[in-house]
Amino acid sequence: MTYKSLFSVLTDEVLVDETLNHAMAAARSYDAHLEVLCLGVDRSQAGYYYAGASAIVLQETIARAQEEATEIEARVRDILSKTTLRWSCEGGVAQLADLGRHVAARARFSDLVILPQPYGEGRGAELEPVTEASLFEGNTPAFVIPSGAKPVPRPARILIGWNESNEALDAVRAALPLLKTAETVHVVVIDPPTHGPNRSDPGGLVSQYIARHGIKVEIDVLSKTLPRISDVLLRHVGDMDADMVVMGAYGHSRFREAIFGGATRYMLEHARVPVLMAH
Fold first, then answer.
1. pTM
2. Is the distance from CB of 38 to CB of 72 less than 8 angstroms?
3. End-to-end CA distance of the chain
4. What SS3 string covers 238-256?
5. 210-267 tens-digit pLDDT
6. What domains, with CATH codes, occur in the chain?
7. Rounded distance, CA 158 to CA 152, Å?
């Protein structure tokens, strides 16, 4: 297994260069095709305008979104045209409420989606639904890049947040091409259960699964000494100088819309290394 079809969504010209640097590095490393969707997002809420104004305001916001999409696409094409990569680029406009449909329809036919961190200063409201749509609706693993992170297409030290869940196992499977080239992989288990079939060997079965792929793996069993499990994971990222985190993405339904659960959101907010998530 390897990555042969990479996908990225860009909705902000400010994030184009940084996101593309990571995506291009991955495409070179895996000899993959890179597909980029450049979206101008209409962030208006047309239903709340005063009577008679909706059509005028909607036309203006759509025109502004189209201008943004054109600028983003032009920048992406300028960068990619100077490479020898196999790539494709498409521009378009979407309303914020309908964003997920456009993203998921393309994400589901890729091996990995490469996206900017959805939270932080200057990050648009559309970045969260883009990430959600890739993971929950597109059912595709996402490689989320924090601001300022350097491209590391083949990370040497990888931390896996393991809790026996299907989501965590899906993330491990999705990360196998990265795990196979790592120097060391740490399966991190926090406060393992004292009852159940895996109580005497927490993380043992998934480590065995990983090791059978020829991967050097270690198990780190930690106590929850901080209020959040995510804080314990992030501290261990620093302790082992990890290049990447692999973990399951968790969410719940609200009005038929997938939204991130607390642990997932916290990791995406505070991680300073790329996070590969799968649902």
1. 0.91
2. yes
3. 19
4. HHCCCCEEEEECCEEEECC
5. 999 999 999 999 999 999 999 999 999 999 999 999 999 987 655 445 566 677 889 9
6. 5-145 (3.40.50.620), 157-278 (3.40.50.620)
7. 11
